[in-house]
Amino acid sequence: MLADIRRNDVETIWCLGDLVGYGASPNECVALAAEVTDVCLVGNHDLVVLERLDISTFSPAAAQAARWTRTRLDKESRDFMSGLEPGNGSLPIGIFHASPRDPVWEYVLSPVLADASLDAMEQRVGAVGHSHVALSFNRPDGGRTAGDQAPGGQESDISEGRWLLNPGAVGQPRDGDPRAAWLIVDMDKWTASWMRTRYDIEEAADAIRDAGLPATLADRLYYGQ
Q: Which of 23, 124, 137, 154 has an alpha carbon within 20 to 30 A of 169's alpha carbon?
């Protein structure tokens, strides 16, 4: 994916959180994020691993993965994630791990929730993660909020109205497309382009199984679920 980013002449890289939580290489993921991102947020899985959120709120598989990650996270990774916040309102685009209303927990999966998020957001355009689903929501000036999933290859003119964008997930997409999902926002032309990059799913899945993590976390990678 980073090779694709370089080929597209991306100037800055923002990460919306959840560096760890499901995969078998937590320290490598955190080190890479620390190296390449210009802005990085903390997600709910990161916060659980840091023991700043109650693990009982997680599903059994997610909780097992979080406990495993806690035992393997090195000091450098822990220190980096400890310095991150779940939202950043100082940029031209508002970025939040989950939503402007609740940067840690709220899933924005419908126009109704997107509308409430747009009301809570200062910036005209915002980006959220958390759901693992690539999405696009728009509220035209004087109109109603609408939106849906954003497949790879979609490009939208976001120069007018209010927008809430979700790039999807790099490591565990949940919209039926197993390729790594990411988003390019051109703030000169005000366009948003949803991107997909193939990666070695089998290698990632084998590492999860070899680590003794729940097999479902490996199996779902093949289906984008």
A: 124
Q: Which residue has the tokens 């290859």?
A: 153
Q: What is the pLDDT of residue 192?
A: 98
In this structure, what token pair is assigned to residue 22?
């499901």
Mind listing the pLDDT tens digit for each residue in 115-134? 999 999 999 999 999 999 99
For the chain, helix (H) and strand (E) counts, in that order, are 8, 11
**Spatial contact of 82 and 76, defined as CB atoms under 8 Å apart:** no
Q: How far apart are CA 104 and CA 29, in angstroms?
A: 20
Distance CA 85, CA 189 (A): 29
The token pair that represents 92 in the structure block: 């031209």
What pLDDT does residue 186 have? 97
Residue 104 banded pLDDT, cuts 50, 70, 90:
very high
Q: Per residue in 158-213, pLDDT tens?
A: 999 999 999 999 999 999 999 999 999 999 999 999 999 999 999 999 999 999 99
Pairwise CA distance, residues 55 & 150, whole Å: 31
Cβ-Cβ contacts under 8 Å for 88 (sequence gap 6 or more)? 39, 41, 94, 95, 96
Which residues touch 197 (CB under 8 Å, ≥6 apart)? 1, 4, 179, 180, 182
Distance of CA 121 to CAs 12, 129, 201, Å? 22, 15, 36
Q: Please tell me the distance from the alpha carbon of residue 16 to that of residue 40, in angstroms, as a whole number.
A: 6
Report the mean per-residue pLDDT for the chain. 97
